[in-house]
Amino acid sequence: MIVRTIIHLSRSGKSIISANRVLGAKASIIPGIHSHAHQVFDEISTTNSPDFNQLLTSYTRNNLPKEVLQLFLQTKHSERLIDCSTLSCILQSCRDLSDVGLGKQFHCICVKNGFDKVVGVANSLIGMYMKCGSIDDGRKVFDLKPDRNCVTWNTMLSGFMINGLGPEVLQLFVELRANGAKPTLLSYVAVMKLCGNLNQLLLGQQLHSCVIKEGFGTDGKAMTSLMIFYIKCTKFVQAFKIFSSMSRDVRSVKSWTAIISAYVQIKDPINVASLFNKMRRDSVEPNAVTYSTLLTASPAISPFQIHALVIKSDYHRVPLVGTALLIAYTKMGRTCESLSIFKSIDAKDIIAWSAMLACHAQAGDSEGAVNLFKEMVMQRIKPNEYSLSSVIDASSSANAPTDLGKQLHAVTIKYKYLNSICVSSALVTMYAKKGSIESAQKVFDRQSNRDLVSWNSIICSYAQHGYGERALEIFRDMEKSGVEMDSVTFIGVLTGCVHAGLIEEGEKYFNSMVNVHHIKPTMEHYSCMVDLYSRAGKLSEASDLINRMPFPADARVWRTLLGACRMHRNIELGEIAAKNLISLEPDNPAAYVLLSNMYAGLGKWEERTKIRKMMDGRNVKKEAGCSWIQIRSTVHSFIASDTSHPMSSKIYEKLEEMMIQLKKEGYRPDTDLAQSSPYLRPSHKNSAQIPKFQSLLHCLTKKEEGLKEALGRRKEKKQ
């Protein structure tokens, strides 16, 4: 009906102006009418510059840059209709499409018709060039324009900001002031944002005074920018004061989100929850950034509650919020929920993919991580260093095939991320966990710029493999390099001392960590020291250290002490350790079994029987051990006392051969624990009940078969 009315007006010749007005108004208000508007424009017999500009402006306002350019190119005699308004619309479209080549052609038209001297057109040219990354061209237009207005200065400032030219922004702002131009609110906001990013506290404080002097002290945008600036500079008290001084009507969702993020940074969950509730009471609706900020503040507000609000607000498909939810559930170990959220995210970006890969890695799901990585590559999403390091971490899990890590190493080389510190450090850790310490060392040697993570990876690798002295040697190299240590470094060092039995060195490094590097010992550090003393038989020192700990010992510490008490037959201390361990982990069979074995070793069969009855009464079952080995891309699994493997008979035959050889060498099996035990029998076949022995024997059996086949093939060739 609207289109017919406009055509009727234009054809009747009564009022071409009326047609233009209806055309422009309806094109700006009613969505989807632009194609009809173009049709009307073609139907109008007489076209002039106002008609043309009216339609171009409507397209520009509705963010339709392609339609603007198509209209210009398809309209007859369009060059005759060009004026300043036309060129501003066209240059804005070139800017939105990032088409600098086409923009330069219209720049030529501007110069040809003398429009480049008009301030509005010059501003559009500067904006187009800066958005397209053609900084030099934008600066030339700016320098050739002596009569600049506030829009000109703001356009240049914004252009430098988008292109990451911080120093140029500050220099231009000084130039603006020196030329007597008055900065606008947008100028102050842009420069304040930069000061926060560059941590320029002094300059930002000077701008704060200028903002108040210029009369922007009560403006919501100005106050929010100042608050964000102080938060980025970690001056939280000033940020809180600014927020408190803001009236309720000027506090926007951005203001609330900024102040909530400040309390998240200082880890104040009570105020985070309180502010969020107050924000909702003030009828300010949270946005995607608010929800993603809150999700990083767990456990201030339960992720389940935030998830419900996110779904209610229809933000669950937004990548920013979806990724934050995914990470929150990953931290909780809820892989299924993380996967469900990942599938619901629209237009997944690389951050979402990396987060999901990290979730699989944390769960030790190498198969899931690899399948997801393949899917990501098939969708032509280029992996970044974080996604690669996550999938490499997943490949280092115990149940992952050995060759998987090597294949991912090749992928790393393909994508040219081998020089990335986080990727190469992940490779070092992966090779170490897979038992290839030589490959780990080679990757470490190729690293050009080693950081803390690199050094920690190689130190921990050698320490965990029992090469304590080598771990300490690398630690000394790290000290010479000048890289500052952290708590993880000393966990590796102390673990190395444990495996090498270096008690004095362990004590020295523990004291150095506390007194020289001022690192507070964590439970893992104390656990290493207890292990160090326990292995050396210094159980009283281990017990004293536990009593001096600033926090209660956890199950790892008591388990370590209990194992040492069993080994060194210290029944009194062992009972104390077992009591504490059972109170911490009443359903874990390890404490019961260790104490039971200790009683059996000392011949205290009644006490041992009581422990076994306690296990039965509490329905605590000893889980069967499991081990696996990969041979020719096939993974073979073994469970304690399992005879289901097709090569079980050959494995036991191999065991008989090995036991005979061991006895010849003087080995005598310890059968003390086997007496009256419902779990063990006094026979050398007990060794085969241990999954590690089964894996090893299977490997030896397969190797022998392989050698026999190879020798057989050689004989056939000779014949």
Automatic annotation (TrEMBL):
<dbReference type="Pfam" id="PF13041">
    <property type="entry name" value="PPR_2"/>
</dbReference>
<dbReference type="Pfam" id="PF20430">
    <property type="entry name" value="Eplus_motif"/>
</dbReference>
<dbReference type="InterPro" id="IPR011990">
    <property type="entry name" value="TPR-like_helical_dom_sf"/>
</dbReference>
<dbReference type="InterPro" id="IPR046960">
    <property type="entry name" value="PPR_At4g14850-like_plant"/>
</dbReference>
<keyword id="KW-0809">Transit peptide</keyword>
<protein>
    <submittedName>
        <fullName>Pentatricopeptide repeat-containing protein</fullName>
    </submittedName>
</protein>
<feature type="repeat" description="PPR">
    <location>
        <begin position="149"/>
        <end position="183"/>
    </location>
</feature>
<dbReference type="GO" id="GO:0003723">
    <property type="term" value="F:RNA binding"/>
</dbReference>
<comment type="similarity">
    <text>Belongs to the PPR family. PCMP-H subfamily.</text>
</comment>
<dbReference type="Pfam" id="PF13812">
    <property type="entry name" value="PPR_3"/>
</dbReference>
<feature type="repeat" description="PPR">
    <location>
        <begin position="451"/>
        <end position="485"/>
    </location>
</feature>
<dbReference type="GO" id="GO:0009451">
    <property type="term" value="P:RNA modification"/>
</dbReference>
<dbReference type="Pfam" id="PF20431">
    <property type="entry name" value="E_motif"/>
</dbReference>
<keyword id="KW-0677">Repeat</keyword>
<dbReference type="InterPro" id="IPR046848">
    <property type="entry name" value="E_motif"/>
</dbReference>
<dbReference type="InterPro" id="IPR002885">
    <property type="entry name" value="PPR_rpt"/>
</dbReference>
<feature type="repeat" description="PPR">
    <location>
        <begin position="349"/>
        <end position="383"/>
    </location>
</feature>
<dbReference type="Pfam" id="PF01535">
    <property type="entry name" value="PPR"/>
</dbReference>
<feature type="repeat" description="PPR">
    <location>
        <begin position="252"/>
        <end position="286"/>
    </location>
</feature>
<dbReference type="InterPro" id="IPR046849">
    <property type="entry name" value="E2_motif"/>
</dbReference>
